[in-house]
Design brief:
Layout lengths: L21 H10 L13 H4 L3 E10 L5 E12 L5 E7 L5 H18 L5 E6 L8 H15 L8 E5 L5 H15 L20 H19 L8 E5 L3 H12 L3 E6 L4 E3 L6 H11 L9 E2 L2 H5 L5 E4 L18 E3 L8 H9 L3 E3 L1 H4 L2 H15 L5 H26 L3 H20 L4
Bound molecules: nicotinamide-adenine-dinucleotide.
Length: 431
């Protein structure tokens, strides 16, 4: 071993300077908050060190009798303010580093919106489309049993993310309950309504994206009616946000998913596109728009650009070319820190993920509360409470951003890191 190889011995082994990964972006975002922490700065390292990281082997017998192994993770980034909360991602390219970053963003998101949760995230390296329904069922059950060591209604509560849905949550809830010997509805959120799920949960993230976009537009004197919207990702988040924009009279002029990148300057018929995706699994073949090159997609003039697919989409190469007034981050981590700076310099407002997509975890919080009390609310009550929490969180973050002359992302991180580190300081270090 050369001396230079020892450069980060004693530091964080999961940061590789020669190949920056998502957790490095998260740490960079935390560092930006350092000057605003006052006396709490002494605790800042807490936010860089995930509290608990579990890697599990998920072996199953495939339908053809062979045995397959999948790598799974559950990361509890911080539990200072309450039990862990964050989704489970099924994607063939998911990595531990990515899950760590996503868990860190959950810590910030939950605190930024004021929910009494810590941050966590999980995932399995599997393409849910490349295995059968029965195989996926076995993968989900085995994974849940393996992470059952650290999850639970008062410890850590998973939810859906990319590649998982209400059916996944039903299987996870059942598996955890079987292992425990009693039904524990509160162990996951995003469940079907018949199993203790909440009305409005399915739509909550997209609804939150729309509410924060509308609030940002109000401050920027932009009318939502007639505005042009470009959406990447046409799944739960992107699809519902697109529908709400469409219903509010905006024009969704372009939409992209894993199957197609489509453009129609007159406005895509969003309900028809959603019906096409429901029937065919992707936007590919949708007749109401024209396929365009992905790089052209990112340069379309619009009022709202909504990345709602995967992270790392708005890069320093794309950021100088985007032609939008507001970026609303439906996805987690879609803008790299370097791109974020470019957008700020260009006067493009970014509504950060930790605020824009917090609607999902907010209604997950409502679901968890309803499960504990076994008393269920109406959809109007849920949407009203969601609206109030999102509008208040937006207002508080906007005020800090004005006061300190920082981006909305840094403002959200300032509020969140204060809350987390205050809890940390007041609890004190064990032992
Ligand atoms: P989803 O699986 O329902 O949809 C994902 C969408 O992204 C699909 O339309 C898919 O085709 C598209 N996509 C995948 N790869 C792509 C690619 N390479 N190029 C273009 N499009 C691609 O997932 P979702 O729940 O809508 O999650 C989307 C994002 O929102 C993720 O970053 C997720 O972490 C985040 N998020 C989701 C929730 C939630 O409640 N579902 C909450 C907060 C944040």
């Amino acid at each position: 071993m050369h001396d230079t190889d020892l450069a980060h011995v004693g530091g964080l082994s999961y940061l590789n300077p020669s190949a920056p990964e998502p957790y490095a972006s998260f740490i960079e975002q935390i560092e930006r908050v350092r000057p605003y922490l006052g006396e709490l700065e002494r605790w800042i390292e807490t936010l860089k060190h995930p509290k608990r990281t579990l890697i599990v082997d998920v072996p199953i017998v495939r339908d053809d009798g062979t045995i397959a192994h999948y790598e799974g993770y559950r990361v509890q980034h911080n539990l200072s303010r309450g039990p862990g909360k964050g989704g489970i991602r099924f994607h063939p390219a998911v990595t531990l580093n990515e899950v760590m970053a996503l868990a860190g963003w959950m810590t910030v998101k939950n605190a930024a919106v004021g929910l009494p949760f810590g941050g966590a995230k999980g995932g399995i390296r599997v393409d849910p489309r490349a295995v059968t329904k029965d195989e996926l069922h076995r993968i989900t059950r085995r994974f849940t049993s393996e992470i059952g060591l650290i999850i639970g209604p008062d410890r850590d509560i998973p939810a859906p993310d990319v590649g998982t849905n209400a059916v996944t949550m039903a299987v996870m809830m059942d598996t955890f309950s079987m292992n425990r010997g009693g039904t524990a509805t509160g162990v996951v959120t995003g469940k079907p309504v018949a199993l203790g799920g909440s009305l409005g949960r399915h739509e909550a993230t997209g609804r939150g994206v729309f509410i924060t976009a509308r609030e940002a537009a109000r401050h920027q004197h932009i009318e939502v009616e007639g505005a042009r919207v470009v959406v990447q990702g046409f799944g739960n988040v992107g699809g519902i946000a697109a529908r709400l924009f469409h219903e509010a009279g905006a024009r969704v002029i372009a939409a992209a998913d894993h199957g197609a990148t489509l453009h129609n300057e007159a406005g895509i018929d969003v309900p028809a596109a959603l019906a096409h995706v429901a029937e065919n699994g992707s936007l590919a073949g949708f007749p109401g728009a024209t396929p365009i090159d992905i790089e052209d997609f990112w340069q379309l003039p619009c009022e709202f650009l909504v990345p709602a697919a995967l992270e790392g989409q708005i890069t320093e190469v794309r950021a100088p070319r985007v032609q939008t007034r507001i970026v609303v981050e439906g996805a987690n981590g879609p803008t790299t820190p370097a791109a974020d700076d470019i957008l700020k310099d260009r006067g493009i407002l970014v509504v950060p993920d930790v605020l824009a997509n917090a609607g999902g975890v907010t209604v997950s919080y409502f679901e968890w509360v309803q499960d504990f009390s076994s008393f269920f609310w109406t959809e109007d009550e849920i949407n009203d409470r969601l609206e109030r929490i999102m509008v208040n969180a937006f207002g508080a973050i906007w005020r800090v951003s004005e006061e300190k002359q920082v981006s909305l992302r840094t403002a959200a991180f300032i509020i969140a890191c204060h809350r987390v580190l205050e809890a940390r300081a007041e609890r004190g270090l064990y032992p």
